[in-house]
Design a protein that fits this description.
The protein has helices at 28-34, 44-63, 83-100, and strands spanning 5-10, 18-23. The chain is an alpha+beta fold and 106 residues long. It has one domain (5-100). Helix 2 packs across helix 3 (83-100). The longest helix is centred in the middle third of the chain and has 20 residues, at 44-63. 16% of the residues are buried.
């Protein structure tokens, strides 16, 4: 299982930036639906902090040429991503760890 994820920004009419997470792993959406985690058991601040740690580990693997990681993630810890975005990214990292039987962060 390889990981290909991208973060895109879209600019709505109100001059605010929204971010979209696109996951290319075919099994992720069904895994997410069947995962028993409650979406609101984490705060957005927690998700933002843990995602930044995951992104550092992810990008390190990408820079080392790990074949399981096919994309670089441009995740800026100074940007306040919305809850749905952070939750989906966090759950993707959990999915990646589970399907690849590895931990990205200790």
């Amino acid at each position: 299982m390889t990981g290909r994820v991208t973060i895109h920004d879209t600019i709505p009419v109100e001059d605010t930036v929204e971010y979209e997470l696109i996951v290319f792993d075919p099994g992720f959406e069904s895994w997410l639906i069947s995962n028993p985690h409650s979406q609101h058991m984490y705060s957005n601040e927690y998700l933002q902090n843990i995602n930044y740690q995951y992104v550092i580990a992810w990008n390190y693997l990408y820079s080392r040429g790990d074949p399981r990681v096919e994309s670089y993630l441009d995740y800026d810890p100074t940007i306040k991503y919305n809850y749905d975005f952070n939750y989906k990214l966090f759950m993707y990292f959990k999915y990646f760890e589970e399907t690849n039987r590895m931990k990205l962060i200790p």
